[in-house]
Amino acid sequence: MFSRLELKVPLIIASGPGGFGEYAKLDDFPWEYVGAYTLKTVTYNQKCGNLPPRMYARDGYMINRIGLENPGIEEFLSTLKNGEYDHLFEKTKLILSLGGDDYQEYIEVTKKAKPYLGRFAAVEYNFSCPNVSKGGLSIVTDMIEWQSLLLEIRKELPDTFLIAKLGIEGGFIENFAEKVAQAGWDGVTVINTIRGLMFNDDREMLLGGLSGPNLLPITARAVYEVRKKLPDIYIVASGGVYREEDAEQLLKVGADAVSIGSAIFQDEQVIFRIGKHVLEYLKK
Ligand SMILES: Cc1cc2nc3c(=O)[nH]c(=O)nc-3n(C[C@H](O)[C@H](O)[C@H](O)COP(=O)(O)O)c2cc1C
After folding, report:
1. Within a domain: 162
2. Which of 27, 59, 196, 274 has the most beta carbons within 10 angstroms of its beta carbon?
3. Pocket of ligand 1 (CB under 6 A)
4. Torsion-angle region of 268 (φ positive above 0: left; ψ -120 to 50: alpha; else: beta)
5. Is 202 among the domain residues?
6. Is 5 inside any structural domain?
7. What's the CA-to-centroid distance between 196 and ligand 1, angstroms?
8. Residues 203-258 pLDDT 10s
């Protein structure tokens, strides 16, 4: 039995581009259209991320190799307890994104976060970051082990709205989503960035994750295939949403909510435009 995420607008800020809520500092951030805000992935240990260059954009693609820079779960929870995120909780629902380097770290990060999860609308597990040498995307390469991890997390968090963030690499995404559903999770976010390689203007090579408008057809196909296989699972569509029509297309093919990622770097008012359009479309 799947549950639904109740959002005032089915528009979610993607994990990463929104950082740890830095946009709350802007006076005119369109909060009325933000259904939920996903924090940047927090891993068991602190991560300093990769050395520069870390980002580059051209021709509708953006590549990043940030490498999941984050303070680690202990430090994150202490700032949470100190009230650092209270202003964000007042503005919208928050989704916590968790990750780890291996099976055990996913379990440990879950146990550490568990006492504080009542404040979050959902927890999204990052099973698809292409920019780390351990964990991330590689966690799904052993399907048997990954399935047992999904079951163990569900057992640990029986009442939490659980979302698995899946990429398109390593197999058919709808088959991964089926495993998520079989483990009793509520939803999936499809997709994450895709492994790519670009040279920047200084001819430096960046091995990282691609995001940007060119991902849209891939995201649309992923949503379509997951919805076809799993009529009831909650689907967050992430990848390539830059315009009002992009969000509409993804809802049409089966997404329950759309996620805005790198588009926010260009202009945060994209949330206002897309959020307004989504509400109008859903009223029709
Ligand atoms: C700079 C940057 C950092 C990101 N960091 C994370 C992260 O910490 N966790 C995560 O699950 N996804 C992360 N992502 C992936 C985004 O959440 C999103 O899935 C991806 O960018 C595709 O969406 P877009 O085309 O709308 O940007 C990051 C993306 C970018 C561009």
Report:
1. yes
2. 274
3. 14-17, 40-41, 62, 64, 66, 68, 97, 126, 129, 165, 192-193, 211-212, 215, 238-241, 261-263
4. alpha
5. no
6. no
7. 14
8. 999 999 999 999 999 999 999 999 999 999 999 999 999 999 999 999 999 999 99
* Nearest ligand 1 atom to alpha carbon 14: 17
Distance of CA 193 from the midpoint of ligand 1 (Å): 6
User: Quick check: 110 and 44 in contact, CB under 8 A?
Assistant: no
Using an 8 Å Cβ cutoff, are 98 and 110 in contact? Answer: yes
Question: Residue 84 domain-assigned?
Answer: yes
Taking the whole predicted model, whether its pTM rises above 0.90 is answered as yes
Query: Catalytic residue numbers?
Result: 129
Radius of gyration, CA atoms only, the chain? 17
Number of structural domains in the chain? 1
How far is CA 181 from each of CA 77, 184, 232, rounded to the nearest angstrom? 29, 5, 9
Q: Domain of 193?
A: 11-49+68-197+211-283
